[in-house]
Design a protein that fits this description.
Elements (H helix, E strand, L loop, with lengths): L6 H11 L4 E5 L2 E5 L4 H16 L7 E5 L2 E3 L7 E2 L3 E5 L6 E3 L2 E2 L4 E7 L4 H14 L4 E6 L4 E6 L10 E3 L4 E3 L9 E3 H6 L3
Parallel strand pairs: 4-8, 9-10
Antiparallel strand pairs: 1-2, 3-6, 4-5, 6-9, 7-8, 10-11, 11-12, 13-14
């Protein structure tokens, strides 16, 4: 990668060479994630169905998978969350490289995969610094769901932890009322 003209160019090249992989730049480092497994994708499909049922679009929201989030942590930094709830006018906040400004994101959700430390540590930091109001981690490694909310001075307070058999109520700042099943977030659809 030394011949590349920038970190961003190197990330673009990896994206082209590794179809199906997610390429992100977090804190100035390229992070490559292999394609997700079936239960991971079932969780995302279930989330879309749940937001459809509560008519989130009519509330002025959009819910999308794998949309780029421009990060303030470095000149080329961006993340590609598994699932996001954004304002309906998010397309007006395009920064570059199919990434959107953080102010249009109301919720970001990650389902952990093999590189779970990115979701449970690195992204906790970068999403807080981007002032994302709600960050949910379906931590399949530790069999729990973490709810981070309301960052202050670039840091989230300690998360609310939910175990199997419980649910995660969405904070009011998301703009819709919804309880998410911890079991479904961790396992995918029943």
């Amino acid at each position: 990668m030394l011949h590349e003209s920038s970190l961003s160019d190197a990330a673009d090249r990896l994206w082209e060479e590794l179809p199906g992989h997610r390429v992100e730049i977090l804190n100035g480092s390229i992070v490559v994630t292999p394609p997700p497994d079936g239960p991971h994708q079932e969780t995302l499909t279930w989330l879309i169905e749940e937001f459809l049922k509560i008519k989130a679009r009519q509330a002025g929201l959009r819910y999308v998978q794998n949309i780029g989030l421009w990060l303030p942590t470095g000149p080329d930094d961006y993340a590609v969350p598994d699932f996001s709830v954004v304002d309906a006018h998010y397309k007006d906040a395009l920064v570059e490289k199919n990434c959107y400004a953080p102010h249009v994101f109301r919720l970001v959700l990650e389902v952990t995969s093999s590189n779970w430390t990115n979701d449970t540590a690195t992204k906790v930091d970068v999403y807080a610094r981007a002032d994302i109001p709600v960050y949910i981690v379906a931590d399949r490694k530790h069999d729990e769901v973490l709810l981070y909310r309301n960052p202050v001075d670039g840091k989230y307070p300690d998360p609310v932890r939910r175990k199997r058999g419980e649910s995660v109520p969405l904070p009011e700042s998301v703009g819709v009322a919804l309880e998410l099943s911890v079991d479904t977030l961790l396992d995918g659809d029943d």
